[in-house]
Amino acid sequence: xxxxxxxxxxxxxxxxxxxxxxxxxxxxxxxxxxxxxxxxxxxxxxxxxxxxxxxxxxxxxxxxxxxxxxxxxxxxxxxxxxxxxxxxxxxxxxxxxxxxxxxxxxxxxxxxxxxxxxxxxxxxxxxxxxxxxxxxxxxxxxxxxxxxxxxxxxxxxxxxxxxxxxxxxxxxxxxxxxxxxxxxxxxxxxxxxxxxxxxxxxxxxxxxxxxxxxxxxxxxxxxxxxxxxxxxxxxxxxxxxxxxxxxxxxxxxxxxxxxxxxxxxxxxxxxxxxxxxxxxxxxxxxxxxxxxxxxxxxxxxxxxxxxxxxxxxxxxxxxxxxxxxxxxxxxxxxxxxxxxxxxxxxxxxxxxxxxxxxxxxxxxxxxxxxxxxxxxxxxxxxxxxxxxxxxxxxxxxxxxxxxxxxxxxxxxxxxxxxxxxxxxxxxxxxxxxxxxxxxxxxxxxxxxxxxxxxxxxxxxxxxxxxxxxxxxxxxxxxxxxxxxxxxxxxxxxxxxxxxxxxxxxxxxxxxxxxxxxxxxxxxxxxxxxxxxxxxxxxxxxxxxxxxxxxxxxxxxxxxxxxxx
Length: 564
Description:
9-stranded mixed beta sheet, TssC1_C, elongated, 3-stranded antiparallel beta sheet, 16 helices, T6SS_TssB1, alpha/beta
């Protein structure tokens, strides 16, 4: 007897976790699954024409493949710069003023920039006229004169575009929007998986969090936590992605401390990038020995930050990744009239490097789409392999840089282990493949290795924090939707333990399919009074997730403040 289609699909599809809770709909009870929501914080406008409103008055905006350009247009990324003029008949001292607003991802391409800048557009029109004239011209001398003029204008346009596209402000706009586009285009967004973005320059975050005495009074806390958990029917953020780079300055460390408090309260890990200045090197290509850097007196506050329990909710990625090939033969930017060739040369800074936090975010959305679970995000065979980044054949004479690389610097296995121990999540280049991978999964937290080293280290990794936080979201929503139903903390505790026990399987030898149905090896919830907050309860949650996670033998502990 031939097997049915559903039988074959079940065999092909990977095991998938489905966590639900009961919702009353009239006389019926429905099973509801919470969406996985990625919140992206970035400087989306870069040079806004008008001052932005206070952070608490801004809104997260949902973005997907279908509305990407509309959201980009509404964000109005704007470039206003002055660059040396390379155009014919211009004085060497003359500067070209550029003011451009980009409305679509396609408008970041060279020919679009030509059309948006009147001086470049005029030169292009002249070039087009000369090409037409060349086809009508007779006589070798006349053709040579026209050809020389074409060459002069073509060369000048190439030089001018190179100056504009290699300007730091343009590269910032392009890197942010191409990084975001990479995440959106490679994520299967739907009602189960959503991406939302917030226009939040790093300086605005610092100002917002410094203005208030406590981080839980800030605009960011209001947007991430209060407007979601504090509102009936509001959605939670599962993870927050910051298109920033954090270094060793006191402002950066203070900002990380305050952001991680919000991330821990919302149980939404914050993923952003490490700045090279954190490693006390001038650029990404210098040889590095990390063993002593983080023991300096300058980084005392950094070490204290790592020792805090909340730092489990912070992940710093590195290095930067290549977001597009240089324009030219590998990445065409030409038509019959004009051919732009980007002069990246042997200068690493001329390439478009972007934030690796976007790449990790895509690995996380991929894991959720496949499994309904976000554990499979690291390791070449464990979900961490990155195959869709552009690959360029580099020919740097002054740096030890492999050909066919997708990252700004290469990280050896030895360095990756050292960086992982220091709390960083690094992308490793896969030699001779043009691929890369997240190999480790450590958060910035420094595990307490005096107690139980394997468990302490595993429970401070991003896969464990993400999966445990998923249950924390459900616990908060379960109680929020039933405020006023329970008479005592004992009844709350009984209700929560009954719910979570339906996801527990004690059989360590069970199949992956069975573990997907019951993704926890053990779970226990203890409800207590919250100190200093009469009438408010907290749930201490002990979880031992085991689907796609086999290292932990004791429980992760989370504290969830329950809605009152």
